[in-house]
Hints:
The chain is α/β, with parallel strands linked by helices.
Amino acid sequence: xxxxxxxxxxxxxxxxxxxxxxxxxxxxxxxxxxxxxxxxxxxxxxxxxxxxxxxxxxxxxxxxxxxxxxxxxxxxxxxxxxxxxxxxxxxxxxxxxxxxxxxxxxxxxxxxxxxxxxxxxxxxxxxxxxxxxxxxxxxxxxxxxxxxxxxxxxxxxxxxxxxxxxxxxxxxxxxxxxxxxxxxxxxxxxxxxxxxxxxxxxxxxxxxxxxxxxxxxxxxxxxxxxxxxxxxxxxxxxxxxxxxxxxxxxx
Length: 251
Ligand code: IPE
Ligand code: IPE
Ligand code: MG
């Protein structure tokens, strides 16, 4: 496989520009609804609409990769009625949004252990990925039944199956076998909803990502709050282990 990426621990992406890859934990739907005395699932429905807005804002800003955590491998622990509603929303989004994605040049990619989803959802995912496969303005990755630990184990197990004689795996090969092996590592990670944790999201890929936590609940997130997060990113100095003084000098 062609290595499209050099780990940013070796080359330093300039921060003055718009991040190439933004990864977001879309959190706070339930609290948003509760504050309005509505059922939690009402927050999820509004949350889906915000995905549409943020995809649009990313296209306008020139972001090339947007990765959204929609459903974690741990979210099956939620009440059955909430999980069922989330699956329905997933089906509706896959049915209704693909034309818009195509029109806007968005390639859709779903990552996670998809085997646990219904055959209907799996079929809709395949169709959506094939239909948008030629789009290149923005790659939208939705993490569904995803966990960072699952991703790492899955990568190692797939590598082992493909290379039964090999004894050691290196960093670049492991990266290739991850669910997002063909994408650059996220430059900016955003978590809405006030919690400051990774919740088993992209454990490997976030090694040198800049973090931005905001109290804004996901259904209130929009193009302006996205721009504020990008502006905060642009103030950072990404050093990857070096000193400030070294950054101006060739490495
Ligand atoms: C995020 O919002 C959506 C999913 C995890 C599916 P939450 O549902 O976690 O909202 P809070 O954290 O309870 O407010
Ligand atoms: C993380 O949110 C997963 C998604 C946003 C899909 P959670 O709300 O499930 O995370 P925890 O359980 O509070 O860490
Ligand atoms: Mg939450």
